[in-house]
Automatic annotation (TrEMBL):
Organism, as annotated: Dimorphilus gyrociliatus
Name assigned to this protein: Angiotensin-converting enzyme
Carbohydrate-modified residues: 56, 90, 325
GO process terms (BP): proteolysis
PANTHER family for the chain: ANGIOTENSIN-CONVERTING ENZYME (PTHR10514)
Amino acid sequence: MLWKACALLFFVASIGSSFGDRNNITAAKIWLEEYNTEAEKVRPEAQEASWTWNTNITDYNNRLKLEAEKKKSEFDKRSYNQTLNWDWKNFTEINAKRQFYKIADIGESVLPTDKFQQITKAKSNMQSVYSKARVCNKPGDQDPSKCYPLNPTLENIMAKSTDWKELAWAWEGWRNETGRKMPDDYEKFVELANEAAGMNGYTDNGDYWRSWYETENFEKQMEELFIGLKDLYKLLHAYARKKLKERFVGHPFPDSGQIPAHLLGNMWAQSWGNLFTLLAPYPGKPLDVTEMMREQNYTTRKMFDLSEKFFTDLGLDPMPPKFYNDSMLDKPEDGRDVVCHASAWDFYNRKDFRIKQCTQVTMDWLITTHHEMGHVQYFLQYKDQPVVFRRGANPGFHEAIGDVLALSVSTPKHLKKINLLRPNQNPDDEELQLNFLMNQALKKIAFIPFGYLIDQWRWKVFKGETKKDEYNEDWWNLRCKHQGVSPPVQRFNTDFDAGSKFHVPNNTPYIRYFVSYVIQFQFHKALCKEAGHNGPLHKCDIDQSTEAGNKLAAMMKLGSSKEWPDAMEAITGQRKMNVSDLIEYFAPLEDWLKKEVKNETLGWDDQCGRNFTIPTPPPTSPPTTPTPTPQSSTVKPTSGFDSIHNNKTFIGIFIAILAIFVR
Ligand code: X8Z
Ligand code: ZN
């Protein structure tokens, strides 16, 4: 009897004590600190290995990177298991609860080791294909061994060439050398990423990515923002199409209204700033900042110094001591392969922050420099938060910081101040102002549908609605539907054009940029108010306003410790994303565009995919770009047009009809 009573007592006591432990907030906080200390050792190691590979792509460095990623995933998994010791979901202490929630969210680390290694390998393969790609056989080149990288050659061709054939060569070649080599790895990646998401309680990997926004109906909200901007985009699209038809007279433009995607000054038609000279409302009043920079012997370092000064003049932090030594600010000249796509790096040890980019001396790169420094500034501001809160309030916030500053830097008023406007140009001249707004629109408004559609495509892939053999067709459906662009040459289902855009092989979600392009105008307006700006929004320059700087810093310091509406409220007083500040900014240009396109048909035929209207090729200079050879008997065209294919189809139909009659 006695032993039974003892056993019962022991049982009750042990339940009681374990219950007590699981809710002991003091002990939980001690564990959180231990986690943080450990994370500040594991994460820098993984970052260092990744950095080494990114700045020197070799098999050896790849192996080191995989090893370090494995180690980090083991740490994540171990930590997750330890979170199970706590009843953290019922903690009333909000901050600790949120840290647990973030620590428990381990993404792909949840996979068993063999699968974790498979997914990391699939990603590495795609990234290395992308970053090593070169395109050969340029029209006019005699030497077939001469091949060209994206940065700087192909980017410059897309930016400057007005030769249809050369543009189509670069456009098609880049896709042949990148995306087309990736569908198998991408399919594997999707399968395993979905498996991990499922294990973590999400419906698929897209659901997991969207969870970072902690927003009900996130997809619906994005759609509403997009719809709110579509009319403005259509005006710009119609105007660009009109002018491009004048530039490429005699070349085929689809009757259905899309613009051939290789004509917009950029490899992905995502930003049209390079068409500025063609599209400027007042061509006699150029904004030739790049030329001014070159005349003044700008260097990469000078661009970084200029950018840093704008931050420190707002009262924000300077770059830390090791930053300039450790960063990679130019493309190395020793021929090694590097990941050129610009990025900013937090090593999570509170002292090591870097930028990696292959800078060129241009206005665009000056803006990108501000963009990347914006990321570093965010890292610096939240560096004393626990590691798991060292993130943006949402991923779009991180993308917006540098861009907000660049909105001020790009104004004619500011350019004058830093001697990048010609001495005879008056920054208050309304015609110059309209030119400036056009330049901004070509970067910001043109980007909106592109920023929106990449993850529309990926979310469908993750949901299983788009299968491997539909990857390309669905991609072009979205490109056509939202952006109103069409492929300049025949596309096949063995092509994988989404893979030609860095963020797809690199597995970086993209809706963050769409979010950023909306909220940066909300932030700009709020900071302008803080800086005491009066007058139209597009004329505001917050330079040297420590009031504006303080607001921005206060928001950044939060990291992701609070949900994003709290962070947004800290700057703007609002808790919602909305497009009205962007629309206000561009209002004068919108009026001008409406007059300019009054005789144009706005928009395009939404029936995309294979239903592009095939125009009659011009009699003199047909678009003789090489047609891709179908790779297997199951290959079918996805979309696009080209004269050769068109003629073949026509002849085929003719022979078939003839055969019926003969029979
Ligand atoms: O990838 C970037 C940055 C690095 S976060 C250079 N951006 C997007 C892109 O290049 O596609 C900035 C704008 C959109
Ligand atoms: Zn960025």
